[in-house]
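ok here's Probable transcriptional regulatory protein PSAB_01095, seq below lol
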Amino acid sequence: MGRKWNNIKEKKASKDANTSRIYARFGREIYVVAKQGEPDPESNRALRVVLERAKTYNVPKAIIDRALEKAKGNSDETYDELRYEGFGPNGSMIIVDALTNNVNRTASEVRAAFSKNGGSLGVSGSVSYMFDSTAVIGLVGKSADEVLEILMEADVDARDILEEDEAVIVYAEPDQFHSVQEALKNAGVTEFTVAELTMLPQNYVTIPEESQAQFEKLIDVLEDLEDVQQVYHNVDSEE
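and the structure came out like this:
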C-alpha cells in the first residue's frame, strides 16, 4: 500500500508553492467547510481535519484566518463539490475533485484537458470503484511497532502501518483521521509529516515509456485548473 507519502507530499508542495496554488486551494476548502458547518474547529470536525492537513503544507495563518473570517461574515459565495472520473493513456484511471462557483466552466475545462491529452471522461462510478477513500497520517520519531501499540491502547483501528523511508505512515478509514491523530498526540507526537484524506487505487499500473510524457502532461494540465482541488490516479510513478 505504501507510496512514499512524504516524498509525494514534498513534491506536490514544492510544485504548488511556486504559484501559491496550494494556499488558494486550502483557503477555498476552509471557507467551504466552515460555511457548511460552524467556523469553529472545536465544534466542526470536518474543519478540524482540513486545518490539520493545512498544517503539513505550512499554509500561512493569515490565509486560514481570512477564510474563516469570510465564512463568519455575510459572504454569499457558494461552491459546488464536483468529482470527475476518466481515463488517461493506456487505460490509466484518474479522479478529479473540484470546488467551483461555475459548474459549466469547470466541466468544460476538465473535459478539454482530458480530450486534448490522450484521455477521456467516463461516467460517475466508472473509475472510483477501483479506489479506496483513505486517511494517510505520517510521523517521525517512533517505530511502526510503537505506533501500533499506541493505537491499540487507544482502541483506534488502522488499515496498515508501514515504515517508509524515515517515517511511519498510518493508513486508516477516513472517519478515523481525527482519532488516529489524537491518539498519537496524546502519546507525545507534536508534528505530522503527512495528514491527508486521499483516494488510493486498489491496484497500480505501469504505463509504457512512450506514453509517460503524455500521461504526465494530462495530470499537470488537470492540476493547473483553477477549480481543481485534487487529482488522483493509479499509475505507479514512484521514483
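fwiw The chain has three domains: 5-72, 80-129+202-233, 132-201. kinda neat tbh
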